[in-house]
Specification:
heterodimer; A: 213 residues; mainly alpha; Helix Hairpins; 2 domains; 7 helices; 0% strand; B: 128 residues; alpha/beta; Rossmann fold; 5-stranded parallel beta sheet; 5 helices; 5 strands; 43% helix; globular; ST_Response_Regulator (chain B); CheY-like_superfamily (chain B)
């Protein structure tokens, strides 16, 4: 329904735009729509039309600049590489500390099983020590829960970045994809511990070294 | 009346490492009959078929949380008298209030030590 006070010409132009683009216009199409509307203006342009023109042009420039800034942030890379990688690393921390905690508890249980073989005083002392080990192992539960909270926060950021990419068009997701392989720099070689299955095991490293002989 | 250390204790936590820690701490305190459940629903099922003198439960579990388990226990005439200690990282006062309103017997915040566990168990069960 035309808005009250909109003149007949503008109403017709809006109808034409609505037919072409529907009721919802994607953000990256706004500039094009505004341009089409202004191009279709004919006849005398009033002071009000000029003001509207300037406002729309300024809005179009603002949106274009915002798109450029968002593209520079490389949202696709944030979503697909940084956040995905951070989540995997955090999961690996939980897995590794859990495995280590269980190893520590295995050892503590083995120590505890020696108690019946010892005199009472030493056995009591041993029980005190193994109890302290078990108490200390509760850290793993707490760190696991804290890391889960961080992973949830990252997931939230990922969802918002995805919404942003969708709003501005899929082409912004792929701006960082390059087909040309880049030469490795020294910085590229500083990756820290690899995720399980992501690195090379000692046997393969030995084989690789031997292949140079 | 002295506490029967041979009573069955049910410990509930979705984290197997924590179950193992609590089991070992209970063992150090002389409680060897310990069963484990990994969520509230599993615990409720075990409570309905077995006889337990104490429940020690985590809060944050799926699909049934420790708080939901507590409410189910307190709503069941047979299970209602079973002492229930919440052991959780949820340390906000509103959590403690919600647990108290649901009928928790005592509340332990993680991380905790054997002495705290013993103190809380004593306050619920009596001296041992």
């Amino acid at each position: 329904m035309p808005a009250k006070g909109v003149d007949r010409d503008l109403e017709l132009r809006l109808d034409a735009i609505r037919q072409e683009h529907g009721d919802t216009v994607k953000v990256d199409k706004i500039g094009e729509v505004v341009r089409a509307m202004l191009d279709s203006m004919t006849g005398d342009i009033s002071a009000g039309d000029l003001r509207l023109y300037r406002e729309l042009e300024s809005l179009s420039q603002y949106i274009h600049a915002a798109k450029e800034e968002i593209a520079a942030l490389r949202p696709g890379e944030i979503k697909n590489e940084f956040i995905a990688s951070a989540t995997d690393e955090l999961d690996a921390i939980v897995g590794a500390t859990e495995a280590a905690t269980n190893e520590i508890m295995d050892a503590a249980e083995s120590l505890g099983s020696l108690s019946p073989l010892l005199d009472q005083e030493v056995a009591n002392r041993l029980d005190e020590i193994t109890t302290r080990i078990f108490e200390a192992c509760t850290f793993q539960d707490i760190t696991g829960q804290r890391i889960t909270k961080v992973v949830k926060a990252l997931k939230e950021i990922e969802d918002r970045v995805e919404s942003l990419v969708k709003m501005f068009g899929a082409e912004y997701e792929d701006v960082t994809k390059t087909t040309e392989p880049k030469a490795l720099t020294d910085q590229d070689l500083l990756n820290g511990p690899q995720l399980p299955g992501g690195g090379t095991n000692q046997a393969d490293i030995d084989a690789l070294l031997a292949s140079f002989d | 009346m002295a506490v029967d250390k041979n009573m069955n204790v049910l410990i509930v936590d979705d984290y197997k490492t924590m179950l193992r820690i609590i089991r070992n701490l209970l063992k150090q305190l002389g409680f060897n009959n310990v069963d484990e459940a990994t969520d509230g629903a599993m615990a409720l099922q075990m409570l309905r078929v077995g006889t337990y003198g104490l429940v020690i439960s985590d809060w944050n579990m799926e699909p049934m949380t420790g708080l939901q388990l507590l409410r189910e226990v307190r709503a069941d005439p047979k299970l209602k008298p079973v002492p229930f200690i919440m052991v959780t990282a949820e340390s906000k006062s509103e959590n403690v209030i919600a647990a108290k309103e649901a009928g928790v017997s005592n509340y332990i915040v993680k991380p905790f030590n054997a002495e705290t566990l013993k103190t809380k168990m004593t306050s619920v069960l009596g001296d041992f």
